[in-house]
Each structure stands twice: as C-alpha cells, then as structure tokens.
C-alpha cells in the first residue's frame, strides 16, 4: 500500500513508482472525441448536413461515437426450453404448473393494419414479430406434442396420463382450478412419491424478428417499421390520446393506480401516479423539455426513459415482491419489473397508457446462462392531427402501440431475444397478473410435505441467426 493517500487516479506500483491510471482513460476519451471531430470535418458539406439532420447536432454525433451499445439479431429461429426440476422431500403429493402458450405477436396488437385512410384503404399488413412453430412438453422422459394455439382444447376429463402416471391437458380460459386462469396454457400435474424427483420441460420452437416503431436515424435500415414510426416532430399531445383508438387504451391502462399488493385499507400500488415523488419527478422531467414540447407525448415519454437510465441503477438483488414505481424512484434502484413500474408511474401522471409484457429474456448471443424471466411493456403514442390529416389518415387509427424495455435500452423496439409469454390484458383487480406470477401449486396427502421446484431456461439444438445483427446505442436523445 502507498504510505500516504495519493491523488485521484494515482496508484503506487510494486516498483514504488506512481502511475496515473486515469490518464490513459482520459487520453482514450480525448482520442475518440478528436477522431470523431476530424471525421466530421473531413466530410463534404452535404454529408455534414446529412449527419446533423440524422443526429440533431454535433454533440449528439459525438455521443453516438462514444456511446456503449447492445447487439441484437435482426431475426432468429430457436427452441427455448423452460425446465422445472421438482423434488418431493416429504409425504406423497403432486405439483401442478400452468405453462403459458405463447401468443403470435404482430407489430400491431390488434393484428390489423396500423393506419386506415379516409377512403377506406389500409396501410401495409402488420409484421409478425413472434410466431410459434412447434410445442413439445416433456414429462419424465415422455414427449407430448401440444397444438401451437392450444386448439382444439383438451380438457381435464380427457387429459393425457403418461406411463409414469403424470397428467397433461390444455383447457380453455376459465375460473375452475382445471382451467387456464390467464390465457391459453398447458397444465401439467406431476405425481411424486416420498423423496422422488422428476423433471418436465416445455420446449417452444419460435421464429422472431426485430421491429421498430421509431422514426429516427438511429434505427438500423435492416429493421422494418421506421417508415411508419413516431418521433418528437410527428407526435401528438396528451389530449390526443382520448381520440385515438376510441380512447380504449387510455381507459384501460391510463389510470393513476394499478395492481394493489396490499389491502383496501392499506393499499400498496405497483404503479402509482399520485405519489409525491412520482409527481415531482414528472414535473422535473417536464421542465427539462424544450419550449413547445411540454404536452408532447413522445417528448415526455422519451425524457422519462432517459431520466431512468441516468438516475436508476439496475438491481440484481431485487426483493421477491417488486418495488413500486415510487420506491424505485426514491431509492434510485430497481430491476426490470421495478423500473417499468417507475416508467409507467411517470407516464400515467400525464394520462399516457402503458401496460406490461411478460416473458423471458435471452442475452444477445443466446448463451444458455443468459436466459431469465423478464418484464417490460407497451405504451400508446398518438401521431399529431396535422401529420395524420396530411396523409388522409383517420384520426382514430393514427397512433402506434410500441414496446419499451427500460433496463435494456430498447426504445420502441422489439427484438428476437425477448420471448413473449403474455401481454397484459385490462383487469382492474390485478388478479390476472397475480395468477401469471403464481403458476405453481403443490398438494400433499399428509403432514410434513415439501416439494421444491427449481426453474431454468436454455436453448435446445441449433440457432439460426442468419439475418445478421445491429447495434443499439445508449445515449440521451436531443428533443429540440
């Protein structure tokens, strides 16, 4: 150790010499900045004008050169295996798990063209961004093929009983214990003798594509969607939300409070737009917006997204019960659920509707160690009236519903690495979300029962990433 404190960035080496370890970093930073400036200056006047048009100025151009980034595939085909290992450490019993059948997801959630024109003509058909090709349920070594859409249903009375005595069925959605509580699903019942262990896996072969709802120079030309995307200049206002899609999304997902994990007398809302810290943070974000953009839906939403990136740290040790949006903002700490709670809390102070997407996230290179349960969201952004009228688009249809993943810097972007299990449906009680988060029940025939379950994810077989990859840079957007 050095005998006395050294200056910032200075360490004592084993030879006794002092070395400034920050100097190299500063020099590298200066080198990159200078290289970017030289490159910009060397461009032709026309090219410089184009760069400034794409990036909003020289500052943003330099930020782009310096910014960290994520790498995502343009499209991918893979088989995701959702594995459960169960161990009975007590008396005879069984475990029942409800496994979601993934939906076919299109670039418009309604599955219809995005815009309808005054003459009744429609825009191009929506892009399919997630499609299931095969589902296989493997229970204790026995494989069962499941219809990719769960149709026709197989009810409990007609369930499949495996050679080892386990039971499988895929019913309709309903309120009975043997029905699917949330959406289309497969139910598996694994019967276990004392001290018996077993494994079952749900293998889903999917084909997914990247899609962007953002009209910006950062969007790679390989990704569809940009030409009909939204930006700060063509965005509508908070008031426009009520006239888009008949105001359904605003009514369903624009309320100030959502998902009470407490009681009626002592509520604990996951999303709370009435909390003091949420309202003050939203006001702070509003004051940061350029003149004339204070009621711009895109500007406020993007500024909230950038605020969370700058001020909230990702927490890999997050509590089991997710922090609320206000708690995430107050502690400046949160995982995917919690930062999404914070983002939606901020949006709903302005009546912007936002709702959840639940699934499984893979790392950009599809490493088996990189798969984990994940939550992100959708929200609605209106195009401004004049933009719609210039194109003869019916105002009710002139909006986008886009994905946003705060912790992974995916702004108005869907990627193949995010496997979607379920997109939240309107439910004021929050019971659907509760049931999604609690898919397993265990039953024992006597006292002393304990069944442990360990869940894991991995890819099976070959991965097809032949469509190439692209970078998503992480830096604040200039909204002026």
Protein architecture, described:
By secondary structure, this protein is an alpha+beta fold. The protein is 22% helix and 32% strand. The chain folds into 2 domains: 10-66; 73-254 and 353-480, no CATH class. The chain has helices at 21-42, 45-55, 58-66, 248-253, 276-287, 297-311, 325-331, 336-348, 385-390, 431-437, and strands spanning 10-12, 18-20, 69-73, 75-88, 93-100, 105-106, 128-139, 142-146, 160-161, 167-169, 185-192, 197-209, 211-212, 257-260, 269-272, 313-314, 333-334, 354-361, 372-382, 399-405, 410-411, 413-414, 418-423, 440-444, 451-464, 469-473. Residues 1-26 have low confidence and may be disordered.
What's this model, at a glance?
This protein has about 475 residues and is α+β, with helices and mostly antiparallel strands.
- In whole angstroms, how far apart are the ends? 50 Å
Number of domains: 2
Q: Mean pLDDT score, rounded?
A: 87
Low-confidence stretches: 1-26
Structural class: alpha+beta
Q: What gyration radius follows from the Cα positions, in whole Å?
A: 25 Å
How much of the sequence lies in strands comes to 25-35%
* Alpha plus pi helix count: 10
